[in-house]
Design a protein that fits this description.
By secondary structure, this protein is an alpha/beta fold. It folds into 2 domains: 2-114, Rossmann fold (3-Layer(aba) Sandwich); 132-297, P-loop containing nucleotide triphosphate hydrolases (Rossmann fold, 3-Layer(aba) Sandwich), CATH 3.40.50. 36% of the residues lie in helices and 22% in strands. It is built from 11 helices and 15 strands. The protein has helices at 10-22, 33-43, 61-69, 104-114, 143-147, 165-175, 188-194, 219-232, 243-250, 252-265, 283-289; strands spanning 2-6, 26-30, 47-51, 53-54, 57-58, 77-81, 94-99, 132-133, 155-159, 179-184, 201-206, 213-215, 236-240, 271-276, 294-297. The protein has an 8-stranded parallel beta sheet with strand order 8-15-9-14-13-10-11-12, with helices on both faces. Helix 2 crosses helix 3 (61-69) and helix 9 crosses helix 10 (252-265).
């Protein structure tokens, strides 16, 4: 296993290198975030031990630097920190924390836990699948015939300016007995009115959380909620009706990473219906989404009122 140690304290670097080498693993080291990012892109380490601050900047800056170059790379990071430092819980690549002073047993325990777990998705770019027109051309098919092309256990990206067609698909799956979870930034009342005949669970998100609305920036909590719903229900369908809002509040890198992890880890276990506007994701992001998902572009839409 390839392990990267990122710390500007050479003494700590040497201690970690000795422990990791003696455990039979290959070690790389870096004393700055930029050097560490280059190593991640070059050697794809299976595991990273990262100091909370490196050269005067937050160590977690490595995530943005790496993803600016390659969104497909997935990292397994353990942050080394003192007991007064707070590490964000919503970073999808952070698997744990190591408090100083640590022991060799602390490091070996992590190595033994992680050494047999696959590290990353392949970073091979694939072309976007042709966008299927569901309606809107002169050879227009009936909506019910087109909806039948969606099958359970897959992920669908639905390109539409506002979420409408995605809810037509929700109705189809609900009628077939699937459990439904709606992740939305719309008003709960609007969703209930639109889907009043459907039994469903709603998680409403807001940048100003209140009452029944959750914080849109707490991606770790959102990921945990989705995974629990999938685990607790048969034939689960997870709907994200406004991916653009999540991107606007969290950045494209974090959201695409979250979506990729959720859909990969739950492949075949759940159906994902993700609605987003075409303008919210650039070509590179669309390549990522199209890697393991089906993309459908809707020509004619109607806003939820």
């Amino acid at each position: 296993m390839k392990v990267l140690v990122v710390d500007d304290n050479i003494a700590i670097q040497e201690v970690l290198k000795e422990i990791i080498t003696n455990a039979g693993h290959e070690v790389y080291s870096a004393s700055s975030v930029s050097d560490a990012a280059e190593l991640v892109l070059d050697v794809h380490p299976n595991l990273i031990f990262l100091d909370s601050y490196v050269g005067g900047e937050p160590g977690l800056n490595i995530i943005n630097e790496v993803q600016e170059e390659n969104l497909n790379i997935r990292m397994k990071i353990y942050v080394i920190k003192n007991n007064k430092e707070h590490i964000p819980k919503d970073e999808p690549f952070v698997l744990g924390e190591i408090e100083k002073p640590f022991t060799s047993a602390d490091i070996i325990k992590i190595l033994e836990k992680e050494c047999s777990i696959p590290y990353s998705l392949p970073s091979v770019k694939k072309p976007i699948k042709p966008k299927r027109r569901l309606w809107g051309n002169r050879h227009k098919k009936q909506p019910e015939q087109e909806k039948s092309i969606l099958t359970s256990g897959k992920t669908y990206i639905i390109i539409e300016d506002v979420p409408s067609a995605v809810y037509d698909y929700v109705e189809k799956f609900a009628k077939e007995g699937h459990a439904i979870l709606i992740i939305t930034t719309s008003k709960i009342k609007a969703i209930n009115e639109r889907m009043k005949h459907i039994k469903m669970n709603i998680v409403a998100l807001s940048s100003k959380p209140r009452l029944d609305y959750k914080d849109i920036r707490k991606l770790g909590t959102l990921t945990e909620t989705i995974n629990k719903f999938i685990k607790d229900n048969d034939r689960p369908v997870v709907v994200i009706d406004r991916l653009a809002s999540l991107i606007e509040n969290n950045g494209a890198n974090r959201i695409l990473t979250m979506v990729s992890q959720l859909t990969t880890e739950n492949k075949g276990l759940a159906t994902f219906l993700i609605s987003t506007s075409e303008k919210s994701i650039d070509r590179k992001g669309m390549d990522i989404l199209g890697h393991n998902m089906e993309i459908h572009k809707i020509e004619s839409i109607e806003a939820i009122k």
